[in-house]
Design a protein that fits this description.
Helix content is 35%, strand content 13%. The chain is of the alpha/beta class. The chain binds pyridoxal-5'-phosphate. The site of pyridoxal-5'-phosphate (PLP) has 14 residues, from helix 3. This is Histidinol-phosphate aminotransferase.
Length: 349
């Protein structure tokens, strides 16, 4: 018997099946390839650069992001995916001993980090219609707040003025806004940065920049918050963004028009696909992301999940417990892929 071993329920990501010729719409990856500039940076990357450590401050990437967002470099920290940044943010900002608040239905990792880092937390139920109720986060004692906007896996978006009410009412704690899906039609909380120094926004290259495999994400906040999280990062894994990742992510930031184009197309396909599912009688939540949460009609979510998988179409099913058990989360692939999905589902009815 070995003493002291940690026992924890881990986050369970969507499957990464290795089969060929599948439609993989289960983990919200981008439907399109990375930009031409990214592929060029990859082919031109000099292997000999790998001999040295990557830059400590990720200057080039932070500078490119600062220029793009119209903020200062001291307001940005980059990491190994936004999961890395979010985990560091939990460690850095939630040490008061009071419970951190987040919705009962949101990105599953928040609860896992709170458990892992032994941070007390309270899950606030979304409404019957899966809406975040702003008033639930106002006037309630807490040690911090985490909100994904748009939320995952619901896809539902909260307006900037409602986010501001929450940030404003909680100026003694850090409010994290996870903007993993902000490029698909939502409204960023960035304008709040100039007024509030308790807001910390996280973003990722995984979804909108089609670079899930590269592992780059970033956080945006006041220079004070950034210096706190930077110190924690440097106490743990200072070189979390490797030099290949830094150079490719920097190239991605430069290719705005390519990314605006593909993400607009994904948003259009989403709205079309949503109408198609609605026409079949499915309940579909209004999404501002690259996925839809839907409740099938006439068949259980689980049965449809298994049926689609047999047809080599992978969607996400969250298991048969809780409010999500009647729903499937379907990422938005190319128009051709989604047309196939509509045909396959249509054949059942
Ligand atoms: C995908 C996702 C992330 C994590 O993305 P990384 O790949 O780690 O950058 C964070 N938050 C939400 C809500 C996500 O869906």
């Amino acid at each position: 018997m070995i003493k002291g071993l940690r026992n924890i329920a881990p986050y369970v990501p969507g499957a990464q099946p290795q089969e060929k010729n599948i439609i993989k719409i289960n983990t919200n990856e981008n439907a399109f390839p990375p930009s031409p500039g990214v592929l060029k940076a990859l082919s031109e990357f000099k292997g000999n650069r790998l001999r040295q450590y990557s830059s400590l401050d990720n200057h080039d990437l932070c500078q490119a992001l600062a220029n793009q967002l119209g903020i200062k470099q001291e307001q940005i920290i980059v990491g190994n995916g936004s999961d890395d940044i979010l985990a560091l943010a939990f460690l850095s900002f939630f040490n008061s001993g009071d419970a951190v608040l987040f919705p009962d239905i949101t990105y599953g990792f928040y609860k896992v980090w709170a458990d892992l880092f032994q941070i007390p937390f309270e899950e606030i139920p979304l409404s019957e219609t899966f809406e975040l109720v702003t008033g639930d986060y106002v006037g309630r004692k807490n040690g911090g707040i985490v909100i994904a906007n748009p939320n995952a896996p619901t896809g539902i978006f909260k307006t900037l003025s409602e986010i501001e009410q929450i940030v404003k009412a909680n100026q003694d704690v850090v409010v994290i806004i996870d903007e993993a899906y902000i490029a698909f039609g939502g409204e960023s909380a960035l304008p709040l940065l100039s007024q509030y120094d308790n807001i910390f926004i996280t973003r990722t290259f995984s979804k909108d920049a089609a670079l899930a495999g590269l592992r780059v994400g970033y956080g945006i906040g006041s220079p004070k918050l950034i210096s706190v999280i930077q110190a924690v990062k440097n106490s743990y894994n200072p070189y979390a963004v490797d030099s290949i990742a830094e150079s490719l992510a920097t190239a991605a930031v430069m290719d705005t028009s390519y990314y605006d184009g593909i993400n607009a197309e994904i948003s259009q396909t989403r709205d079309w696909f949503s109408d198609e599912l609605s026409a079949l009688g499915f309940e579909v939540l209004k999404s501002k992301t690259n996925f839809l949460l839907t409740k099938p009609r006439g068949v259980s979510a689980k049965a449809l999940f298994e049926f689609l998988q047999a047809k080599k179409i992978y969607v996400r099913y969250f298991g048969d417990h809780g409010r999500l058990s009647d729903y499937l989360r379907i990422s938005i692939g190319t128009r051709a892929e989604m047309t196939k999905v509509v045909t396959v589902i249509g054949d059942v009815f």
